[in-house]
Design brief:
single chain, Nucleotidyltransferase, domain 5, 5-stranded mixed beta sheet, two-stranded antiparallel sheet
Length: 375
């Protein structure tokens, strides 16, 4: 098969390599303009391109044309040589990728199934609307403070109605009225989007199943499904946690040192999981083993560390529920926590015993006479 690479951007840079030599290059404004090189009827090719926003569309189009698309994991592009010697252009990147295709060294990214792609895009539209509404609310509060008026706190969805019910000076009311109208319009569109999101989620039984976990609502569960896609492509909870950037960074070049979480993977889902962890942590009436575990960790390491640890643990619980097709059972989580505490205590006892033995050896060495060897 042919070895081809595309560097996607405002323009697409095409490069084909054979036997280590560049065979052809091209530049196009869209994938359809490369029909002469890759369209139906052309010899089959392995086509590499970096994962990006239009990656799913490129993947579908290449499959329609009879080629084998290779979506590249962007977190491992540097190992292919992209950006070496501070030389990074579309033309060079396409050639580097094409040579990697020929050598069979492409690190593949996971391509979401079509249903999960639609779910991810629907969540993206909802996120944009929520962010827009939050911006309008913040602007209105800022304008009100500039007029010496502090608006009461409330939920964003009824902010416009609550604000209209407050007596404001005419100048302030006239100033914020356009923004209140926009908030009401965003609320209408947001309701439509969330209705469609509910419809899509209703076809995914796992979305409802994951909501049995504490702190997990419709949006968190749908986002988790849209990112993970298939629970069985991971062998352990730790792999999922690392995929979402919730494991500590590590440096073992000299000695093992752990740092802050890696923050790799989907930032939006990671933020949602942190929010879910905070809701569990702050729910004072909740009698849940995960909250009890987080409280004990907070007493030793602080709230922020505990909440991140709780988010990481929540990922493991959600993955296990999805893998096993079961609902959340606090008792089982409590038993796992108890086993974990017991193993941690045993580990501490073994460490203490080892340290005591080492100290005893040092004391004996100090008491023993020093032997001088004559030269």
């Amino acid at each position: 098969m042919r070895s081809v690479a595309l560097d996607l951007g405002r323009k697409i840079s095409f490069c084909e390599v054979a036997n280590g030599e560049v065979q052809s290059r091209a530049t196009a404004r869209s994938i359809d303009e490369l029909e002469r090189q890759l369209g139906r009827g052309t010899p089959p090719a392995r086509v590499a391109f970096e994962a990006c926003r239009e990656g799913w569309f490129i993947d579908r189009r290449l499959r329609e044309w009879g080629h084998e698309p290779l979506m590249v994991d962007t977190t491992r592009c540097r190992q292919l040589g992209i950006g070496q010697h501070r030389r990074k252009t579309d033309r060079i990147d396409a050639e580097v990728l094409a040579r990697a295709v020929e050598r069979g060294m492409i690190p593949l990214a996971h391509v979401l199934s079509p249903a999960r792609q639609q779910l991810r895009m629907q969540l993206g539209v909802r996120r944009a609307l929520v962010k827009t509404r939050a911006g309008y609310v913040a602007s209105i509060r800022s304008v009100a403070r500039a007029h010496g008026k502090s608006l009461p706190s409330c939920m964003a969805y009824n902010f416009a109605a609550r604000t209209r019910g407050i007596e404001l000076v005419p100048a302030l009311a006239a100033l914020i009225e356009p923004l209140l109208i926009l908030i009401e319009q965003v609320n209408v569109q947001l309701a439509v989007v969330e209705q469609e999101l509910d419809r899509q989620s209703s076809t995914e039984p796992v979305v409802q199943l994951l909501q049995t976990a504490p702190g997990v609502g419709a949006v968190v569960s749908a986002a988790f499904v849209s990112v993970v896609d298939d629970a069985h492509r991971f062998d352990s909870a730790h792999q999922v946690q690392a995929y979402l950037g919730l494991v500590p960074s590590e440096n073992t070049s000299v000695q093992r040192r752990l740092g802050a979480i890696t923050r790799e993977g989907n930032r939006y889902l990671r933020a949602l999981l942190i929010e879910a962890a905070w809701s569990i942590f702050k729910h004072k009436n909740a009698d849940d083993p995960m909250r009890a575990w987080a409280l004990s960790l907070a007493a030793r390491r602080g709230k922020r560390v505990a909440v991140v640890g709780l988010a990481r643990r929540l990922v493991g619980v959600m993955w296990a529920l999805w893998r096993d097709g079961t609902v959340y059972e606090p008792a089982r989580v409590g038993l796992a926590s108890a086993r974990g505490h017991q193993e941690h205590a045993q580990s501490l006892e073994l460490q203490a015993a080892a340290l005591a033995t080492a100290a005893s050896k040092v004391r004996r060495a100090r008491r023993s006479p020093t032997v001088t060897v004559a030269r």
